[in-house]
Amino acid sequence: MDFPILGTLSAIDRARIALTSQGPFFLSGEDALQLSVINSLAGGQTVTIVGRMMLLDGTMRTFSETITPSAARTLQSIQRSLGEGWLLNFSVSASAATTLIGMTWARVQVLRGQTGATSLVASLMAGYVTSSQPIAWPGSPIESSLEGQGNIRSITGTNPAAGVEISETVPTGARWKLLAFSASFVTDATVANRGPVFFVDDGVTVLFATDPNILQTASLSPRYNAFPGGPRLSAVQSNSQWSLPVDLRLLAGYRLRTSTGNLQAGDDWTAPQMLVEEWLEAP
Amino acid sequence: MPKMRCNTCAGVYDSLLPDGTQYYHACPPLLMIAIDRAGARLEVAPGDVRGGDITIEQRFPDRPNKRDENVTIASFDKAGNPITAPRSVGGGAVAV
C-alpha cells in the first residue's frame, strides 16, 4: 500500500485512507493497545508484544511491551498508547522455553481511553503462545482460551495422612478434562471390609460416585484406577477400576476424591496421579 | 521447592510441579453419616456407627480450619489487575 506524506493531508483525507485501509488499523491519540494474559507457568514467565506503527508524518516506529503474568491463572493486562497513526503489525510470544500450548493465553485489544473508564473498540487477536509459536496480527485468529488442544498434564496430588481420604481440586482459572486417575490403597491389619468409592463433585454437591465392585480386606495394597469409558472392575493383578464417564469436563473448584467405607485409622492412600488436559478459563 | 505438609490434614505435597506449574493443596472434606438409631435421627462420624443403626445419608462437610490454597481475587492493584490470596489459610503448612 502506498502512503503519501501523511502529515500534509487534511483530517478528512486521513480518515478516508483509514476507512479504505485493508490491513493497517488506525489508532487515534485516545486509543490504547491492551495486552491481556492468563498464565499457569511459574518461574518468571514473560509475554512480549512487538510491532510496527506508521505515524501521521509517514515515519515508521517499532514498539515493544512486556508483561510478567502471575502463575495463578488470572487475567492480567497492560495498556499502552501508541500515539496517532496506523498499526501495521505485531507479534506476541512467551519467554520461557518450557511453555506448552495451554499454559499461556494472550489477547490484544484496542481500547478507547487510557485511564478511568475505557471502552472496547476492537479485538485484534487471541490465542495460546509459546516461545517458538508466537501469534501475530494480521494473520492469527481470535481464539477462545477453550479452543483447540489443551495442555496435557501429569499431576501428582497430595499424599494424604493415614486415615485421611484423597481430595484434589481443579485450580482457579483452569478447566480440566480428566483422562486418568490412579492411586494405591494400603489397608492396615484391622479386620474390616473397606469400600473405596470415587466421587466427583462440584465443590459441594456430588455429581457421581463409582465403586470397583469389590471390598478390600486387611493388609492389602492394590492400585485403583479410573479412566473414561473403562469398566467397573474388581482386582485383577492388584488393579481395580472405577468407571468414569467419557469426555468428563471439570470446572475450577470441582473435586476428585475418595470416600472409603470402613476406613481405618491406619489405612493409607498414596498420592494420586492424574492425567488431565487443561485449558485456561479467560473471563 | 521443598515438599510441604499441611498443618490441618497432614497431607504432604509439592507446591511446584515438574511441569513448572504451581500445585494448590486443599484439605479433603470429612464424612458424616446421618443415621436412624432407634427412631432418632443422628449425625455421627463413621467410627460411631453401631450395629442396628440405619444409614440415611452421607454428608461431606468441610474439615475444621480447612486449608485451601486455590486462589481467589482479594483486590485489584492500581492498574486494575487482580491481587490473589488463598481461599483459606487454615492451619498453615510447613516445609518437610
Summary?
With 283 residues, chain A is mainly beta. Helices cover 4% and strands 48% of the residues of chain A. The longest helix of chain A is centred in the first third of the chain and has 10 residues.
List the keywords:
heterodimer, A: 283 residues, mainly beta, 8-stranded mixed β-sheet, 5-stranded antiparallel β-sheet, 1 helix, 4% helix, 48% strand, rod-shaped, B: 96 residues, 3-stranded antiparallel β-sheet
Q: Which class do the helix and strand fractions of chain B yield?
A: mainly beta
Order of helices and strands of chain A: HEEEEEEEEEEEEEEEEEEEEE
Measured by residues with Cβ under 8 Å of the partner chain's Cβ, the largest interface is: A-B, 46 and 34 residues
- The overall pLDDT average of chain A reads 91
By oligomeric state, this entry counts as heterodimer
Helices and strands, with pairings:
The complex is a heterodimer of chains A (283) and B (96).
Chain A: H1 11-20, E1 25-27, E2 31-39, E3 47-55, E4 60-67, E5 76-80, E6 85-94, E7 104-112, E8 119-128, E9 135-137, E10 151-156, E11 167-169, E12 174-186, E13 195-201, E14 206-210, E15 223-228, E16 233-236, E17 239-244, E18 249-250, E19 255-261, E20 268-269, E21 273-280
Chain B: E1 3-6, E2 12-14, E3 32-37, E4 40-44, E5 54-59, E6 68-76, E7 82-88, E8 93-95
Antiparallel strand pairs in B: 1-2, 1-8, 3-4, 3-5, 6-7
Write up what this structure looks like:
- The complex is a heterodimer of chains A (283) and B (96).
- With 283 residues, chain A is mainly beta.
- Helix content of chain A is 4%, strand content 48%.
- Chain A has one helix at 11-20, and strands at 25-27, 31-39, 47-55, 60-67, 76-80, 85-94, 104-112, 119-128, 135-137, 151-156, 167-169, 174-186, 195-201, 206-210, 223-228, 233-236, 239-244, 249-250, 255-261, 268-269, 273-280.
- In chain A, the strands form four sheets. In chain A, strands 10, 12, 15, 16, 17, 18, 20 and 21 form an eight-stranded mixed beta sheet that branches.
- The longest helix of chain A is centred in the first third of the chain and has 10 residues, at 11-20.
- The mean pLDDT of chain A is 91.
- Chain B is mostly beta strands.
- Chain B is 0% helix and 45% strand.
- In chain B, the strands form three sheets. In chain B, strands 2-1-8 form a three-stranded antiparallel beta sheet, with no helix packed on it. In chain B, strands 4-3-5 form a three-stranded antiparallel beta sheet, with no helix packed on it. Chain B has a two-stranded antiparallel ribbon with strand order 6-7.
- In chain B, strand 1 (3-6) and strand 2 (12-14) form a beta hairpin.
- The interface between A and B is large, with 46 and 34 residues.
